[in-house]
Amino acid sequence: MTPARLAILGIAVSAGAVAAYLASGSDPAAPPPVQQAAPAIRTVEVLVSAVEIPLGGTVGAKELKWQTWPADGAGQGFITRQAQPTGVEDFTGSIARASMLPGEPVRREKLIKSDTTGVLSALLPAGSRAIAITIDNRGANTAGGFILPNDRVDVIRIYRDDAASKVQGTDVVVSETLLRNIRVLAIGQNIQERNGEKVVVGETATLELDPRQVETVTLAQRQGQLSLSLRSLRDISKTDEQIVKPEDVNLTIVRYGTSSQR
Question: Is 60 exceeded by the pLDDT of residue 195?
């Protein structure tokens, strides 16, 4: 082999050795990322409705069950198995004060234990009274028959003004809104809508009133006729001043020959 070739071969070997040395001193490859396990979710067993429970329905053991629930999502009003292990037995025989959907957590305020009283008295809040007024089951004085239990209504009194009738020589009939935003407890003996029924069934409407309102309605029934005006769902939480416009309630009343606006 010639000296030139030997020189070239020596240079190549030297370059390879330098490259190998440099490669051996490079940083090691990064290790694959370590996958951390997701934190365990704390759970509790919450008492829920196993089936749909209607308003006024009697709750049995088959209507209730324990269901696993995230502990962070269990509200203060929830009934847990840890706090009340006999929850199913404790609430068996209760009456539902509000309708409940399947899987809905049971709250104490929605169920009431009633061994001796009737359903309607169990549904009444403390301090309230229930009174029934006569209605036309054809819907002539009940918003065309579309008032259902738990709707809100205004009670309108229609009566003959004797004083104005004497002055005018003819019957003068006056109407006035007696009560506003009153809850309907029942229509006839129905305390809830059944089978998608959308019409009034029965000849009475049972209203939730306070003791003073009971006296007012009882007297008004003796003096004239009562009608119910259905309120919008959007108006339930509003005050009457927000709903009634002055120009909508002006009424001319004639008493002893003198006109007045109401």
Answer: no
pLDDT tens column, 18-77: 566 555 555 556 677 777 777 778 889 999 999 998 877 888 889 999 999 888 888 888
CA dist., res. 53 & res. 175, Å (int): 41
Provide the token pair at 27: 């940083």
pLDDT of 249 = 46
Asked whether the beta carbons of 153 and 192 are under 8 A apart, the reply is: no
Q: Does the domain at residues 43-123 carry the CATH identifier 3.90.550.10?
A: no
User: So what's the pLDDT on residue 205?
Assistant: 86
Q: Which phi-psi region, left, alpha or beta, contains residue 17 (left: φ > 0; alpha: ψ -120 to 50)?
A: alpha
Instruction: Show contacts of 172-175: CB within 8 Å, 24+ apart.
Output: 172/254, 174/251, 174/253, 175/251
Domain coordinates of the chain in residue numbers?
A: 43-123, 129-261
Q: Report the C-alpha gap between 119 and 112 in whole angstroms.
A: 10
Q: Which of 96, 106, 97, 108 is nearest to 64 (CA)?
A: 106
Instruction: Measure the CA–CA gap between 68 and 43, rounded to whole angstroms.
Output: 6
* 134 contacts 204 by C-beta, under 8 angstroms: yes
Q: What is the mean predicted confidence (pLDDT) over 128-141? A: 75
